[in-house]
Amino acid sequence: MEHHHKPGLRVRLRITAARRRAWLSACLRPPCRKPPRRDHSDSVHKVARREIGGGHRRPPRPAAPSSSSFSCPEKFRNFQLQEEYDTYDDEVHFLVKLPFLCTRTKIIEIVAAKDVIFALAQSGLCAAFNRTTNKRICYLNISPDEVIRSLFYNKNNESLITVSVYESDRFSSLKCRTTPIEYIRRGQLKDGFPLFETESLKYPGFVEFDDVNGKVLTFSAKGCTYKVFDLKNYNFLYSICDENIQEIKISPGIMLVIYNYKKTNCHVPLTILSIEDGTPLKTFNQLLHRNRKVDFIEQFNEKLLVKQDKENLQIIDVRNSDLIEVNKTEFMTPSAFIFLYENNLFLTFCNRTVAAWNFRGELVTSFEDHELWHPNCNTNNIYITAGHDLIISYCKVSKQRADCVDSEAGEVLSMGSINMSDIFTGKCVAKISPADPTLTIAPRRRGDDSRSTIRSTVPEALEDITALFYDEDRNEIYTGNSKGLVHVWSN
């Protein structure tokens, strides 16, 4: 995919500089793909007028029924297994010096830009494949001791940012590098250049890419300094230095600063800043239930979401302090959120289930036949389309259609299905399932020498999928599995 970020989605791709071998699991929060940058040139005035108070506010656009229920079955009809790419081969041994980089591990992230597919393995090895020729272009590890932690496609300048750690400093510090996609296509990795070299991103430092506002946020533990950079040209914009800050969360046009507080406190100090220049827009104390752990504090435009352990969800309007509570029996603390800004909704992920809520605290959608395969949802194994109408996930095969059941053990085999569900209705509108007898490996066209060699069977390709990506322009789904293989599904 020419990595299409979804407009109006909240993104938090935060990578922390974890100690020792903690690089094995990237720290990505919350789980959503990176949306396109929106124009916030007058954010200070917009936020002051709309989020903080004063003036008239346009009512939220109603969540109208989606047309995906009509278009998606046709769009995904006759999907077949088209290609298979292997991240590993003997060539790896000549390029890296760390033994674990040569060990076959699962794919944890897939990113596509233009006609290039990037597959990042849990070991830290990252390979680039040309979707036109179906050949591997190169490995992105330009240093023999480089362990790549995460990828970010910057659509502003059509480049790929890699975030890595190195054995030379015991994997303790993050290093960022940007390389134009065209250079990668030609194998000219050396023509990329490092980013944020002046920043000390040692643990617990981090770098966070926010494509909604077109900003990069870094944190240096040395001096407790947060810095904001422009994502278009990486120019430094401003810094925030305060050892009392516990966390900063980003929303369109604004940042929510959460200050340190104790469990015994009856309030948490908060400040809302303009994302453009760091100007304070509102400072206030949010009341808390004393001696209750805070599960989360999230900002969504003028709405503040606060959830404490064994307490109701609170939705507070920061303009006028209006409060809506959702009973704790109805709203359980999710493992992750996805904010759909354009539709004024948010998705929650909890115990393999997905639900859509509005900011009146009402459950809008419960998804049928969409039980996630992985208990802990993350950024890389779901996809939401640009129209905010479809969620694509790797799911468990429904019991009604589980023809592939071991009759003796009575357990579903270790393979799932790729489900496409309508966000507004919760209906499963299309599926790539091992129970589908028509699902096959697409035949090779006569004279097509670009076709890769597919060694997996269709059930094997649907077994233990660990990463998923949808190219909306090409109408192709890319999946990676625990064997380090990448598969292409299309019609």
TrEMBL record:
| Origin superkingdom | Eukaryota
Which residue intervals make up region (Disordered)?
33-71
Compositional bias, Basic and acidic residues, is annotated for 38-54
Q: Which SUPFAM superfamilies match?
A: Tricorn protease domain 2 (SSF69322)
Concerning Pfam families, the annotation shows: DUF7899 (PF25463)
What PANTHER family is this protein classified in? OS05G0482600 PROTEIN (PTHR31789), TRANSDUCIN_WD40 REPEAT-LIKE SUPERFAMILY PROTEIN (PTHR31789:SF6)
Q: In its UniProt entry, what is this protein called?
A: Transducin/WD40 repeat-like superfamily protein
- Gene of origin? LOC103627823
